[in-house]
Amino acid sequence: MHAAIKAAYGVDAQINCASGVLSEIWLFFKVNSAGAYVPIDALTPGSCNGNISYPVKVIRVAPAAFTIPLSVS
Prior knowledge:
By secondary structure, this protein is of the alpha+beta class. It has one domain (1-73). It has 1 helix and 4 strands, in the order H-E-E-E-E. Strand 1 (14-18) and strand 2 (21-26) form a beta hairpin. 5% of the residues are buried.
């Protein structure tokens, strides 16, 4: 994963796991004098070791919003 991220973004990321399951990936930036974000390497590789499980993300859809019309007298 580190190699793929470095190839895509030019910097290494911090990859964190919880019990062998991918939980988050952090990319770090610094801000230069012009206010532009510049990617930098992560300070640590993260907490993932060995094989990493990447479970399918479940997307829960919130119920549709509804409007109650107000009568105007």
